[in-house]
From TrEMBL:
Its EC number is 1.8.4.-. This is Disulfide-bond oxidoreductase YfcG. CDD domains: GST_C_Ure2p_like, GST_N_Ure2p_like. PANTHER family: DISULFIDE-BOND OXIDOREDUCTASE YFCG, GLUTATHIONE S-TRANSFERASE-RELATED. InterPro entries: Glutathione-S-Trfase_C-like, Glutathione-S-Trfase_C_sf, Glutathione_S-Trfase, Glutathione_S-Trfase_N, GST_C, Thioredoxin-like_sf. It is an enzyme of class 1 (oxidoreductase). One of its GO terms (molecular function) is oxidoreductase activity. The gene is yfcG_4. It comes from Pacificibacter marinus. Belongs to the GST superfamily. Transmembrane segments: none annotated. Residues 18-105 form the GST N-terminal domain.
Amino acid sequence: MTSVTHHPINTRWPAQDPSKLQLYSFPTPNGVKVSIALEEMGIPYEAHLVGLTDVDVKSPEFLALNPNNKIPAIIDPNGPNGTQIELFESGAILIYLAEKSGQFLSADPQKRYKTLQWVMFQMGGLGPMLGQLGFFYKFAGAAMEDPTARDRYIGEAKRLLAVVEKQLDGQEWIVGDYSIADMMIAPWLNALEFYGAKDVVGYHDLKNVPAYVDRFYARPAVQKAKNIPPVPGHD
């Protein structure tokens, strides 16, 4: 495995301080999970803005780090046993960062696996389904006359929101204590605002979910991280 400075990605997004963890990302729900985790955990890092167009994510330099051509990805020169590690997939990255820092993922097996099940819930359900909702409700799919796909993802979004609403009964965070599960889930719930889909999925009829998202975004680390890497022209 090559060092940060010798990795192909460094020719396009050069590290200013190669001793720090390098984040290659864009402030989408998947991207900000990692910047939020890094800020919450206090891990020194550099953030590099990787655009979502093929020019960036399908460039040879980025593909050398993530063959799946999706943000986020990281290079940590101070990985396991002092060796460099390169990772993609936000869920894998957050689990790694939690273990590296010893924070937000309990060492107690009962709590640990309950946290990880909600990480998987986001990766396998909430994120993909809300992403499809956005495509068929706000973006290109919204032009389709056949409402089948749009109605399917509206219905699935409602079902998933009901799952989260029930899980939050009587507690502030998804597994009781604040954890990487919250860093995974809350940014995707917040994406409903960007999609303009809150009304259609009954977001305002819920009690726990809106309060949860507000509570999450009131955290100083989240406020700082929500636009990292910064996008020119965006607040």
